[in-house]
Design goal:
The protein contains 14 helices and 13 strands. The chain is of the alpha/beta class. The protein has an eleven-stranded mixed β-sheet, with helices on both faces.
Length: about 400
């Protein structure tokens, strides 16, 4: 069953097989997360007709936790941006409690900020990506969106943890999110990056200032930080992301699965036509860009990788001086859902790509940084694998937006 929100709607009641910590929670996923027997096209013609043969690790854990899988919402092509994405819309009603969305450049956080919900991007490597059709392997995570942070945390507790079949994960013990948060010291010093403030227009500045004022009123110490060349996060994500996307999309050739173009000449002609027909304009331009850096300008890709390492180290040093860093989640003047070019897409995701580049956790809190002109969202970033402390702070701040 499909509709304007769902690519697949589950009609049976067998998707909640047992009692568990997630019993009663209704979950929607994207069609790039494998659910046995469900269409799994990742929003692309390249995977037209593909049906998952087994559950992704996160889906197996949701089932084991007692969650009910409602269906899969429509998504942007291969998870790049938010064009055509309906997961937040699905989560806005009573039919769905929580949604899982691939956070490649900030999709979970911006979708939630636009819809007045909580959006959480976990630290890279704490949630398995096995069974998830990805685009940028070194930067994407399984994001979680929900109206109530308690539900977001409950889902994170169940799906996080080592998966021996996902080679991007380190075999390290993870703290129990629920138990650890009960006795954890809440972060008290919040860093604000000066260069980010300069990127905002007047109405965005006022909205973000309102959020910082609320933090001060709650007793948090605000510390101004400087991050020279902050805009490099966007450039690095653009170069490395497009190269990884070009490489990981090479398998969509129409030979083994997915869309195959009609051709009566030869295999090579069929392959070329299939590649030409399989992708939309936006993702096609991104893949072309990646191929350029991969084959024609490889030194730029190497430079981007070196710069990425420097950005990670710089962010880590800043977090030695504060507990968390606060950023706006989105720009009011750029609409992520209507971006039609790579430049427009990156403009809309200016403040969310840093966490994808560094792999650190990030949580967007709704209706916190807002005024009469709109809600830019308050995004808090912590050190890599400091998810427990970050979510504990989120719970503290959520009291201000209770009822969202």
């Amino acid at each position: 069953m499909t509709c304007h929100i769902y690519t697949h709607k589950e009609t049976s009641h067998i998707s909640s097989p047992r009692e568990g910590p997630l019993t009663g929670l209704k979950i929607v996923v994207q069609p790039n997360m494998s659910v046995t027997g469900w269409p799994t096209n990742a929003g692309s013609r390249a995977l037209n007709g593909y049906v998952a043969l087994e559950d992704a690790t996160v889906v197996k854990r949701l089932r084991s936790g007692g969650a009910t899988l409602v269906g899969s919402a429509r998504m942007s092509e291969l998870g790049f941006g938010l064009g055509g994405d309906t997961l937040a819309e699905a989560c806005s009603g009573d039919e769905v409690t929580v949604g899982l969305i691939t956070d490649t450049m900030g999709e979970a956080r911006i979708a939630s900020a636009v819809s007045g919900m909580f959006g959480y991007k976990p630290s890279f490597g704490i949630i398995s990506r096995l069974g998830m059709i990805g685009l940028i392997p070194s930067m994407e995570s399984c994001g979680i969106v929900g109206r109530h942070l308690e539900n977001v945390i409950a889902v994170a507790e169940v799906i996080a943890g080592f998966d021996e079949n996902d080679f991007s994960m380190a075999d390290e013990p993870l703290p129990d999110l629920g138990e650890s948060m009960k006795s954890l010291r809440i972060p008290s010093t919040v860093g604000v990056i000066e260069e980010c403030h300069r990127m905002l227009n007047e109405s965005e500045k006022n909205a973000f200032k309102a959020g910082i004022t609320k933090l001060k009123d709650k007793g948090f110490k605000i510390k101004e930080l400087s991050f020279e060349n902050f805009e490099l996060f966007r450039a690095v994500h653009n170069v490395i992301g497009s190269v990884e996307a070009s490489s990981s999309s090479g398998k969509y050739d129409g030979v083994r699965y997915g869309h195959r173009a009609a051709s009566d000449k030869n295999w090579n002609d069929m392959y070329l036509k299939t590649r030409g027909e399989s992708f939309g304009t936006l993702i096609k331009s991104y893949l072309f860009q990646g191929a350029y850096f991969q084959f024609e300008n490889y030194p730029s890709f190497e430079d981007a990788c070196r710069i990425r390492g420097g950005l990670v180290r710089k962010m880590s040093r800043l977090l030695e001086t504060v507990d968390v860093i606060a950023l706006p989640t989105r720009r009011l003047m750029f609409d992520a859902t209507n971006a039609t070019t790579i430049a427009e897409t990156y403009e809309a995701f200016s403040f969310t790509v840093p966490a994808n580049v560094t792999g650190q956790p990030s949580l967007s809190i709704p209706r916190f940084a807002s005024d009469s002109t709109g809600d830019v969202g308050l995004q808090i970033l912590g050190e890599h694998k400091s998810d427990v402390r970050l979510l504990a702070l989120g719970m503290e701040l959520s009291s201000i937006v209770k009822g969202v």
